[in-house]
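Schema walk-through. Below, the input block comes first and the output block second. Nothing else is stored per chain. Lengths vary across the set, and this one has 212 residues.
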Amino acid sequence: MPVGCAPKPSLIPSGRPCQGIQSGLSRLGRVPCRPAMSAFDSSSFRIGKATGACAATGRPIEPGQAYIATLCEQEESDDFARLDYHIEPWESGQRPDRLYSYWRAVMPDANAPKNALVDDAVLQALFERLGEDDDRPQRAAYRYVIGLILMRKRLLKHVGMKRDDDGRSVWLVVPKGSPPEEEPIEMVDPQLSEDQQRDVADQLGEVLRSEL
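--- output ---
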């Protein structure tokens, strides 16, 4: 299921919730951690956190209220900005500039657990979207960590390894239930250290944390 994106967005429906990004990563016992790749510095970029207010109206998004969460590309950097919208302005056609992806969410109560749930479909769609001909180091790191979570949840299956034309290690994975003849999906291994894996997971957890 593709992530909603400009110019032809398709909204991701809510589905079965999964455990938080960081907790899922922490249980990936067999994932090797190697010296960090030289092109990646997790401290040099950040995903903007949710503000709790509608980007169109400025009004707060109240607990229990449905809204649209978006990730937008930044004009002067490779970072993502997080902007949220009330349903009414979104359905009237209001959109942020440089829209990258979006999903429907419900604002959790202030007393909700910090490891609130994120939808499986959101993770799968972002994994697919981040793999669309984008070799920027931070995008590869986000996709790799999301891929590890999906593997841990058995929504992706690791079926092999290879080297690409640049000599990078590439994991070959297939979605759960794929027929044997289906072409594997390639997932570049960005050679993250354990600390970098944890840092990327923390960033993803902050921006994707919601009850769907």
